[in-house]
Amino acid sequence: MKKKSCMAATAALLAGSACAQTSLTLFGVIDSGIEMVNNAPDANGNPSRRIHHNSGNLWGSRWGLEGSEDLGGGLRAVYHLESGFDSDTGASGQGGRLFGRRAYIGLGGKSGSVTVGRHYNVLFDLLYPFDPTGMASYSTLTHDPAFAERADNSIKYNGKFGDVTVTGLYSFGYDSTIKDGGEMAGAPGVGRELGGGLRYAPGALEIGLVFDQRHGTSYASRSQVEKRLAAGLSYNAGPLTTYLGYRWLESDVEDISGASNLYWGGLRYQATPAISLAGMTAYTDTKGSAADPLTFALLGTYDLSKRSSLYLLASYARNRGGSNMGVNGVDNQLVPGNNQTGMIAGILHQF
């Protein structure tokens, strides 16, 4: 899905290095579809059906550059620049950032890599393989979007040792769009994020365990903490893969205060080399409250080629005890007190 070029002439002119010493990859994804949801608010706040074009339903639309340079002795310099965009408007994603998905540079070797910049958090790195839909728009992200968030101003370590992958991250201020949201003089705890975990994949069985902690993004809230501990398990038996997952959350950070347990499970079936089917359910148990939403999701994909696919994604969100979760999560796209059904038909191309 990625096209590599050695850039021999450029390397020779600018660095005098051999072709094998430097690599550059241009890559990208365009994902676009039509979504229909019910019980969305109309202009008067009444439940209505909404049909619209939507970008990034299975994978976020993006383009990027990544590369490395051989420094000798098994050491290499590495970099990654990844820019998200909306395929329906052409606008930059992630709040208009040029390289809002990822932007980092570092060093790699036999003992792993250390990079600095903007990264995915460790929740995404280690739990992505345990979501049957691959963390599509309708997935575990519906219950907890922190599973696919990023950290600015961060240092990350990633190492693979046989069947074990180890990842750790520390951020001096995970969201630089917040005024004084991190890296504040005299207050190193403001906007701090740290996390770590491992994934063990000896064969058909795969297990992941991860911890992530974030602090409040103001001087007044610097001692407030948002903690997550999560685990995932998958087992592959030929064309069928089974998934189970759990996430514990405890937080006294404003707007995310409280505690909950999230449980999910599902199956993925490779019916033919071109057709795959996936189904999952996720349930949030909110501590001290009856507001416990339940969601179901189904995904079918048909590969037109190695790079192009058609897909159909559907979900049902059931709200109980005053919960207010739509198929796309807790947002303004659901009239409170209702359940919601959503469906997306789309096409995805990788280059």
Question: What report would you give on this structure?
Answer:
There is one protein chain. The protein is mostly beta strands and 351 residues long. Helix content is 4%, strand content 54%. It is built from two helices and 18 strands. A 16-stranded antiparallel beta barrel has the order 2-4-5-6-7-8-9-10-11-12-13-14-15-16-17-18. Strand 15 and strand 16 form a beta hairpin. The longest helix is centred in the first third of the chain and has 7 residues.
Please give the structural blueprint.
Layout (H helix, E strand, L loop, with lengths): L2 E3 L2 H7 L7 E20 L5 E9 L6 E11 L2 E10 L17 E8 L2 E9 L1 H6 L22 E12 L2 E8 L21 E8 L4 E11 L9 E13 L2 E12 L6 E13 L4 E12 L7 E10 L4 E11 L21 E11 L1
Q: On the 0-100 scale, what is the average pLDDT? A: 92
What is the share of helical residues?
under 10%
Q: Could you name the CATH topology?
A: Porin
How far is the N terminus from the C terminus? Answer: 5 Å
CATH superfamily: Porin
Structural class: mainly beta
Q: How many beta-strand runs?
A: 18
Poorly predicted sequence stretches spanning 5 or more consecutive residues: 1-19
CATH architecture: Beta Barrel
Rg calc: 21 Å
Give the number of domains.
Answer: 1
The top-level CATH class is: Mainly Beta
Shape: globular
Tally of helical segments: 2
Tell me about the largest β-sheet: 16 strands, antiparallel, barrel
Order of helices and strands: EHEEEEEEHEEEEEEEEEEE
